[in-house]
Amino acid sequence: MALADVVRGAVASVSALTSGLKVNVTHEAWIGHADAYAGPAYAAPVLLPALVQEGTNQRRLPTGEVITARACVSFLEPVAPNGAVGRREPIDPRDRVTLPSGLTGPLTENPGAMVDPTTGRPYLSVFWLK
Q: What is the predicted pLDDT for the residue at 111?
């Protein structure tokens, strides 16, 4: 068994063990702009189970920028890619995520995610709402 299989299994175990802690968040994938003058266009909203920790925290990004995060959101199950041109999959910083509390805001990716060599995507998706 390769180490990647061990990590994949560990994430699946944590996902199963934390199922009672997850809440459904609304994810609207950014799909571009309707035209040069319109605001962003989004795919139909989908509900995704996530671990959510609300509360204000200061985070320093690898660039040195300090942000104030209002929530940390973790998807332990794979998020299906949208496939729109120009997106960063599976979660694009231009996506819109709304928490059960109604909190929403710009997304900042949690840097340093370990990538699954089989899929080329992170084992889990973690990001902050600013």
A: 67
